[in-house]
Amino acid sequence: MRYINIILNIQTIKDNIEIEVAGCMINYNKKQYIVSVHQGFPIKSIIINNKIYTDFIICAWCDLIIINFDDSFSEPFVFKQFERKKIEPTEKYFINEEKIKFINHEFIEIGMIPNNPTIMYNCFEIENINNIIAGQPIYNNKLAGIISKIDVENNYIYTIPTNYILTALNKKDNTMIYLLNEDNNNIYKINKYKVINEKIYCCLHKMYIPVNTYVIINSDINYSLTLKNGRIKEIQLINIKPNNYNNNLIINNNIITFTSGFMHLLKLLGEVKLLEKILNNISNNSESFTKLNEFEFHTNY
Q: DSSP per residue over the chain, as a string?
């Protein structure tokens, strides 16, 4: 088996709850990691092989959890080779030894929150989706990505590219989301690459991608902008998220600030009536405010 079972210990309003995902073990630059997905949940701890881990990286810019893993594990499959090129329809890819069909590259808002900058997912179609869980790897003879989102109705899976995993392992800071402090419409060129209709060629993806996506995955490089008025400027990146995804639930003096990730958690927990009240209030109140029992709820974004 090419994946391991992982339990995410999720923080909720009253109690903690455990959610099962998958993960895969990789060996990169002579270090061993377990890579999985957080799906925007506020994670307190992770359980692997009955051991609790509290030291891990939650990537704010994509749906990745990275765990430095030095413990022994009975007969795990360890990925040591990585598919770095762009996924192509002519290539064969698998999950659980079942062949999957590449559909397209999709750019989806971070955290699936409207107006957030986007990152790229690879979309595949799979015939038997019933036994698929988030965090499972896709592969050919190399690791080609891990599953982040599952569309049961259409038998689609959305996967995080392997290049994002390797980028996360090399990034200086995965807890921030960075953007350019400049209007994309004013930019003619970023370093040596031209900006065309707010898109720029990305060597990592081997394709044109949105400028914001390019900056997010390349936040460690220095940027020199050539503006459309001919001005050249060195520019600093700005951080648009001050913390990681644990901020999708903040409890302070009975005031609960939450994001759409928390609303997804309510749905997962079966709290449909509470979710309906929140959604109805948001649609009817421009300030997005509601009172439920002894708690006050405020939407964050």
A: ---EEEEEEEE-SSSEEEEEEEEEEEEETTEEEEEE--TT--EEEEEETTEEE---EE-SSSS-EEEE--S--SS--EE--B--SPP-TTS-EEETTEEEEEEEEEEEEGGG-TTS-EEEEEEEE-S--TT--TT-EEESSSEEEEEEEEETTTTEEEEEEHHHHHHHHH-S-SS--EEESS-GGGEEEETTEEEETTEEEETTTTEEEEHHHHHHHTTTS-EEEEETTS-EEEE-EEES-SS-GGGGEEEETTEEEE-HHHHHHHHHTT-HHHHHHHHHHHHH-TT-EEEETTEEEEE--
pLDDT, tens digit (0-9, with 9 covering 90-100), for 237-292: 777 653 334 445 555 665 555 665 566 666 655 666 666 666 666 555 544 444 44
Give Cα 239 to chain centroid, integer Å: 17
Say how many Å lie between the first and final Cα of the chain, rounded.
39
Question: Which phi and psi (to 5°) does residue 174 adopt?
Answer: -95, -5
Amino acid at 161: P
Q: Which two tokens stand for residue 106?
A: 């999709």
Closest C-alpha to 258, from 281, 276, 278: 278
The lowest-confidence range among 23-32, 192-201, 275-284 is 275-284
Q: pLDDT tens for residues 32-81?
A: 999 999 987 878 899 998 899 999 999 989 999 999 988 777 667 899 99
Take residue 9 and report the two structure tokens written for it. 């210990």
Mean pLDDT, residues 84-98 taken together:
89
pLDDT of residue 255: 58
Cα distances from 127 to residues 85, 98, 106, 155, 156, in angstroms, run: 25, 9, 20, 7, 9
Residue 294 has pLDDT above 50, yes or no: no
pTM of the model: 0.81
